[in-house]
Design goal:
Blueprint lengths: L1 E4 L4 H13 L4 E4 L6 H7 L6 E4 L2 E4 L1 H10 L12 H18 L14 H15 L2 H5 L2 H15 L11 H11 L11 H14 L8
Parallel strand pairs: 1-2
Antiparallel strand pairs: 1-3, 3-4
Helix pairs in contact: 1-3, 1-8, 4-7, 4-8
């Protein structure tokens, strides 16, 4: 099975996590961000992740996870995520994206190794969200806000040891904050992330 992905994309990381929890090997293909032809050839539009299993091609992270879960072995993702975890993500997603968006086009990620790939990301996002420089000016406020968000997350954190959809939804969102150099991840949240990474073999992307 082949997974086309962006490393910075939390929806792509959901699939990587699920496959590793299930023990299914994936051939990971990191698509350069300025390569629109590959996803369009596969599914007709520029969107990842895409799973290719022989002649079958599918997108949408949770649909792919469902397929992986049903391929054999113990079902791991049948239980729905806890509402409080879903509610936290919904409440704080815009704050996280506000911090991540002007920093995401970073060469620590395979899809942003070239200036053209980084420029394609910036152009696409500025067309929707305005200048990246203006978004960076909000950093201090957003970091302070997120610390309050972490205070509400700490009591409802998953334990990080079970293969649950709570982790599949939450950890990839937190991992996107790797590009934020300002003090950001609260210590208890970092411990949770480390437990998930130990279980899945994922890393915390480092600057190059």
């Amino acid at each position: 099975m082949r997974l086309y992905l962006y490393e910075h994309c939390p929806y792509c990381i959901r699939v990587v996590m699920g496959a590793r929890m299930k023990g299914w090997p994936l051939d990971l293909v990191h698509v350069p961000y300025d390569d629109a032809e590959t996803p369009r050839r596969l599914i007709g539009r520029k969107m990842l992740p895409i799973l290719q299993d022989g002649a079958e091609v599918m997108s949408e992270s949770l649909d792919i996870l469902r397929k992986l879960d049903e391929m054999g072995g113990e079902r791991l993702f049948r239980q729905p995520p806890r509402p409080q975890v879903v509610d936290w993500i919904t409440a704080w997603k815009s704050t996280i994206y506000g911090l991540v968006l002007p920093r995401a086009a970073d060469p620590r990620y395979p899809e942003f190794q070239t200036p053209a790939a980084r420029a394609a990301f910036v152009a696409a996002k500025e067309a929707r969200h305005g200048p990246m420089a203006a978004l960076r000016l909000q950093t201090g406020r957003l970091v302070d806000d997120l610390q309050q968000g972490f205070e509400t997350l700490a009591p409802i954190l998953p334990d990080g040891d079970g293969p649950f959809l709570d982790d599949i939804l939450l950890f990839p969102m937190l991992r996107t904050l790797a590009v934020v150099s300002e003090p950001c991840i609260a210590p208890k949240i970092q411990v949770y992330c480390e437990r998930v990474m130990q279980r899945t073999g994922l890393d915390w992307p480092k600057a190059v």
